[in-house]
């Protein structure tokens, strides 16, 4: 058994914080996901992997309550994502792959609007706005219309809204999409620091990112779970994890 101090995410995992129980989503005869089951305990950073079209984003939307499953269920911090969606949303921060933004607004405007919608009081909201502006490196574009921001900066605004209410659970769909290498490094360091106090499920296509910030891998292919275990069980290094990924996701004729 590995020493807990070596595991990204801090101390020994605790109670279940993200639960998928037989999650399935059908569109007519097509199964986007089928019987996906896994549990992420408190204090763990897990990578959610799979090739394009494997069902990752669909699964994440069902976990967060944005999409109703055809079968099965999901829980966030013990709250049912459908039946208790408002309670689950209070402790959840979600970054979609291409999050909708009101492009005529500035980061300052949209984040204040979202904070007020979440019911944050004036003092707390101001403190959290200052926090996310600093941690997501948005001060330079704080008053600039989102329509004029690069994809990378829009992604930072999306990360800021996910962090704004200081949630216990983060579900991040491609958080470094559109970022340059320096920005990617900054986001990885942010995730590392957040992992000390939060449970994180992270979808990414960058396998070196998995080695850098995650302790666990959940891998799906063609809508089904094909691997669930420690990163070190899947592969020993960045080169090996790419090979193992191909082995697990290549469709055999």
Strand content: 25-35%
Number of strands: 10
**Structural classification:** alpha/beta
CATH superfamily of the largest domain: P-loop containing nucleotide triphosphate hydrolases
Question: What form results from the Cα inertia axes?
Answer: globular
Mean pLDDT: 89
- Give the domain tally: 2
Rg (CA only): 18 Å
Number of helices, counting only DSSP H or I runs of 4 residues or more: 9
Q: Can you tell me the CATH topology of the largest domain?
A: Rossmann fold
CATH class of the largest domain: Alpha Beta
| H-E order | EEEHEEHEHHHEHEHEEHH
What is the share of helical residues?
A: 25-40%
CATH-derived architecture of the largest domain = 3-Layer(aba) Sandwich
Spatial order of the strands forming the largest sheet: 6-7-8-3-9-10
Distance between the termini: 38 Å
What can be said about the biggest beta sheet? 6 strands, mixed
């Amino acid at each position: 058994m590995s020493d807990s101090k070596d595991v990204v995410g801090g101390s020994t995992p605790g109670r279940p914080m993200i639960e998928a129980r037989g999650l399935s989503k059908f569109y007519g005869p097509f199964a986007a996901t089928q019987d996906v089951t896994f549990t992420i305990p408190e204090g763990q950073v897990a990578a959610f992997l799979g090739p394009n079209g494997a069902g990752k984003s669909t699964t994440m939307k069902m976990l967060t309550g944005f999409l109703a499953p055809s079968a099965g269920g999901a829980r966030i911090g013990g709250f049912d994502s459908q039946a208790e969606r408002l309670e689950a949303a209070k402790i959840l921060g979600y970054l979609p792959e291409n999050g909708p933004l009101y492009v005529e607004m500035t980061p300052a405007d949209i984040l204040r609007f979202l904070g007020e919608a979440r019911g944050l009081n004036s003092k707390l909201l101001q403190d959290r706005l200052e926090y996310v502006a600093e941690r997501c490196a948005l001060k330079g574009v704080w008053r600039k219309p989102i329509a004029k921001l690069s994809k990378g900066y829009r992604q930072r605004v999306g990360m800021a809204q996910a962090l704004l209410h200081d949630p216990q659970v983060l579900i991040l769909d491609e958080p470094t999409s559109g970022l340059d290498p320096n920005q990617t490094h900054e986001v990885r360091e942010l995730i590392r620091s957040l992992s000390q106090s939060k449970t994180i499920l992270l979808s990414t296509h960058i396998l070196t990112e998995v080695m850098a910030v995650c302790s666990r891998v959940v891998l799906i292919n063609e809508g089904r779970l094909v691997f669930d275990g420690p990163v070190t069980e899947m592969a020993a290094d960045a080169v090996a994890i790419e090979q193992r990924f191909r082995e697990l996701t290549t469709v055999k004729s």
